[in-house]
Amino acid sequence: MVTILPMGERAVLVEVDSLEEVLALHARLEASRPEGVVDLVPAARTVLVRVDPRVLALAAARSWIERAPDAAASVPAPPRVVELDATYDGADLGETAALLGLSTDDLARRHSEAEWTVAFTGFAPGFGYLVSEDWPFDVPRLETPRTRVPAGAVGLAAGFTGAYPRETPGGWRLIATTDAVLFDPDAASPALLAPGTHVRFRPVAARADVSQPRRSALPRIDSSQGILRSADLRRNERATVAGGHDTQPALRVTEPGLLATVQDLGRPGAASLGVASSGALDRASLRTANRLVGNAETAAGIEVTMGGLRVVALRDGWFAVAGAWGRMLLDGRDVDPYEAHAWPAGTELRLDWFDHGARAYLAVRGGIAGPAVLGSRATDVLAGLGPARLRAGDDLAVGVAEAPIPAAGIAPWGAPHDDELEIELGPGPRAEWFTASAREALFDAIWTVTNDADRVGMRLDGPVLERRRTGELPSEGMVPGALQVPPSGRPVVLLADGPVTGGYPVIAAATDASLDLLAQARPGTRLRFRHARPAH
């Protein structure tokens, strides 16, 4: 049985009864995918379908989902098989074996002899959730998750196994380690363990000298089955991005403030690899700042959170600032936002702490230049993709402008409203998990943004939203703007760097236009939610 559930105004969640049906549904949708589908994200019981409504209306997407032809009618391509070297030396190996009534050798043997398939990805870029018909065990997660799981750790949780592509927190039971490169953003196929990939774990002995890396940290693939065999293949897959800019630095950061990052309009379309859309939280302000200096709207600028940025021009240029409101000085003289200003070499631009709004966007004529990761220069603070957050002493290059600087202002401007914001919400897929009074309280209450707010999401304070349905929710696809409700009963609004899958029920989702408003919400800002107007 297929159930189509709403996920805001730009996505739906297609629910089926089993993981096997998810894999079949995902294959069927991928085989007939129309233009305008941005993401197809399989999970434990669902496939998230996210669309660009300028190309494909959500109603049309629903019709396509209901009528998508069976992929089994075509001859399937042979599965890609990846073989990972694994040393069974994980910190939880002995305890996990005892929980399952096995010896450590038996657990390692059962794990390595199983034929695994990547069911879906999530949690972190390249983190694959692997399942196997040969694996009968339901392994409980740790009662207290680790704050640090090293890259390459192989773990077990529920009926899944998986390997951590990078150091992150985690609650899976660790039984082994692998040196495989699981996620390489510079490769043509960044995620080694993409959905549908077959995986084998090959036991190898622990190294006597752990200070010396193995000769090859890359997995083997059987070329007869579409499988990676050598390090050379993956190195040859690397996709390079044309420079298109002067490599000489044009700007130097002398003080980054609370948080300053390079942002453009993000990297949508990679959620099935576990990669969030990222990009500027207030896209309208970045677009405006770029237009003011003659850049394409997609050019990268600097997102400044709460102010405190100081930058020196190393050569003559132009800049504009839009978004949050605060005192702005060039070489000690006050200058206005929402205007293009000449920026002579040797002068310092200073953005004081903001009086209104949370994020301002500094656009430099030509745009911030540098290598792109999956087509974007955006910094993803959760996944660690893109440039690192800016620090004092960082030098930045700029690109080449595409248009003249406009002769006059291009938009009315004023201080952003941040005392109380009205946010439109579209329906969420799990609204029925909550009581009628909770669904009413969501729209009747005044919510307050807490100090626990960043580019990943913002936690809200207000009434407890009570569930009428308890129990665990299998991981499912998420979108920016999703209002997840954890056991505390108070919602968390996911933002651009939020995880692409999650296990808390989503009661509603902010509209795309409301995401720009949320970007300017500061701790203490009050939010009122109202139902989104129907699309015409």
TL;DR of this structure?
The protein is an alpha+beta fold and 536 residues long.
Could you characterize the architecture of this molecule?
14% of the residues lie in helices and 30% in strands. With 536 residues, the protein is α+β, with helices and mostly antiparallel strands. The longest helix is centred in the first third of the chain and has 13 residues, at 19-31. Residues 210-218 and 220-244 have low confidence and may be disordered.
Chain-wise SSE layout:
Elements: E1 3-6, E2 11-15, H1 19-31, E3 37-42, E4 46-51, H2 58-67, E5 81-86, H3 93-99, H4 104-113, E6 116-121, E7 128-131, E8 146-149, E9 153-157, E10 160-163, E11 168-170, E12 173-177, E13 198-203, E14 220-221, H5 231-236, E15 251-255, E16 259-263, H6 283-292, E17 301-305, E18 309-313, E19 317-325, E20 328-330, E21 333-334, E22 341-343, E23 348-351, E24 356-364, E25 395-396, E26 420-427, H7 436-444, E27 447-453, E28 457-461, E29 476-477, E30 482-484, E31 492-494, E32 501-502, E33 506-510, H8 512-519, E34 526-531
Parallel strand pairs: 5-13, 26-34
Antiparallel strand pairs: 1-2, 2-4, 3-4, 5-14, 6-7, 6-13, 8-11, 9-10, 9-12, 15-18, 15-25, 16-17, 17-24, 18-23, 19-22, 19-24, 20-21, 20-23, 26-33, 27-28, 27-34, 28-31, 29-32, 30-31, 30-33
What is the 3D form?
Answer: globular
List low-pLDDT spans.
210-218, 220-244
Which bin fits the share of residues in helices?
10-25%
The N- to C-terminal Cα distance equals 30 Å
Question: How many strands, which pairing sense, and closed or not: the largest β-sheet?
Answer: 7 strands, mixed, barrel
- Numbering strands along the chain, what is their spatial order in the largest sheet? 26-33-30-31-28-27-34
Radius of gyration: 24 Å
DSSP strand content: 25-35%
Number of strands: 34
Q: Helical region count?
A: 8
Main structural class? alpha+beta
Average pLDDT works out at 89
